[in-house]
Amino acid sequence: MMRILIVDDSSMMRAMIKRVVKLTDVAVDEILEAGDGAEALKLLESNDVQLLLTDINMPVMNGADLLRRVAGNDRWRGLTRVIISTDGSTERREEAADLSVRCYLKKPFSREVLRDVLIHAAHAARP
Amino acid sequence: MSSSTLRTPPVLDANGAAIRDAVSAVAGQSFFAMVEDAVHPAAAASRPLWLFSVVRFDNGDTTGSLVCWLPPGLAHALFDSFSGRDPSEPPPAAHLINDLVGEFLNMVCGDWLCRSRGRAFQLSPPIVVRAPQPEGAGRQRLWVKVNDHPIAFEWEITSASGVLQDGR
Question: What is the mean pLDDT of each run of 10 residues along chain A (127 residues)?
């Protein structure tokens, strides 16, 4: 069982990801949601999260800054990180690799691709 | 045959073609929707209110914006495709429709920028309001049909190193 945190400023996108998670056979204790990186950090500090799914372009604190903060804290060394973003540029993908991101999913994507990424990431994140 | 079907869609420049390809990718992959080339609808006596959205982008040496107008009926259909809402369920709240329209434009803009060049970019949070249906064509306006509904895009490059500006 695991706890997943979905970070995206679009409530529609969060709801869609959440629904696809529920369609997989991945055993999940709880799915947490945040609308930006700052909210996500607060949730990470107060919850034991195994899998982080984050957008990049968000207000207040973007996903790249969130991932830098996560990478800089030993407490989250075991946290599996996945980016789900419209920005599929080579520059952003290289930056993600430096921040120990396990999967990079570019929007738009089909539900089947998202499901496969989630299953792969969830296996890696299994506590 | 209506007069609109006799008109030929204008030849697109590289940005227009890349945006059309981005719309096809987003509509097809995330909304199960079909995209066709289109011409602007004939002028009407009254212009209904559509959903107008705008997103600004910045990739360091290029900034600009992409806007979209789409009819409310299409927005609701896209919402149902994206969310899996059953038509028998209560209709979605206006803020959820706006969120969906903003995310649609966000994905189109991101896909266009990825097609045009490989640099990382920032997108502003989309703004979505009601505005009259646009009229006519324009040099930087693209009309397409999504599931047979006309929608329009317009782009603006406010500074550039040349790559997006000339569309290469």
Answer: 92 91 86 97 96 94 95 92 92 88 90 86 77
> Is this complex's ipTM strictly greater than 0.95?
no
Residue owning tokens 């490989």: B118
Residues 6+ apart with CB under 8 A from A78: A50
For B99-126, the pLDDT digits (tens) are 999 999 999 999 999 888 678 899 999 9
Instruction: Provide CB contacts within 8 A for B152, sequence distance 6+.
Output: B40, B68, B69, B70, B134, B141, B142, B143
- B1 confidence band (pLDDT: 50, 70, 90): very low
**CB-based contact B99 A11, cutoff 8 Å:** yes
| B11 Cβ contact list (under 8 Å, min separation 6) | none
For residue B59 the two structure tokens come to 């990739």
For B39-68, what is each residue's pLDDT tens digit?
777 777 777 899 999 999 998 888 999 999
Give phi and psi for A94, each to the nearest 5.
Answer: -65, -40
Q: Do B125 and A106 touch (CB under 8 A)?
A: no
Of A57, A91, A95, the CB nearest to B118: A91
β-pair partners for B127: B54
One-letter identity of residue A40: A
Q: Could you tell me the pTM of the whole model?
A: 0.88
Is-contact B35 B151, C-beta < 8 A? no
- B96–chain A Cβ distance below 8 A for any pair: yes
Question: B8-25: buried (b, 16+ CB within 10 Å) or exposed (e) per residue?
Answer: ebbeeeebbebbbbbbbb
Give the integer Cα–Cα distance in Å for B42 and B136: 8
Cβ contact A51:A80 at 8 Å = yes
